[in-house]
Each structure stands twice: as structure tokens, then as C-alpha cells.
Amino acid sequence: MRTIDHVREVTPLVLNSKDKEMVRLAQRCIMASLDHSRAAVITLTTDTGEHPTVEVPPAALKLIGQLLGVMSEGRPVVLMPTEQELTTVEAASF
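Now predict its structure.
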């Protein structure tokens, strides 16, 4: 049985209503683009006004969209590999 080699804790996000709406819109945009094509490139806008494009596999975009949907609802999220095995003590800590 493998146990978790490294746990990275991230401070829980506290989103205000404006941020929740921004996340909700981003999620809808990503999911809509996946419904209409097999989009693999997204364009970002940086704080300096640049617009780099990023190639992302459709499955990863879908995961990002699902994550944004959960975030917009204010629910906590835990990500771990599907084949990850936990000891009973590690499982209890979740």
C-alpha cells in the first residue's frame, strides 16, 4: 500500500460575491467552449494587458471548469490521484 508522499496544503479560498460571480462566468465560458468544439487553446489576459495563448488538453479544461463550478458554490475541494491509497490514519484526517 502506498501512502501519501507529500501533502501540499493550500489556504482555503474565501471568495466574495464578486469573485464567486467571476468564477461562475469563467466556468460557464470554459464548459460552453468545450460543448461546441474540442478546444485546446485558451487566451489569457495578463495584468500588463498581454494576451498569451495556452494549449491545454480538453480533458484538463473540463477539470478546470468543474473545479471553477465547485469554487463558485463555495464548497471545499480536495484533489488527489485516483490510484492514491491512504492508510486509515491518513483517510481519517480528511
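The first helix runs from residue 17 to 36.
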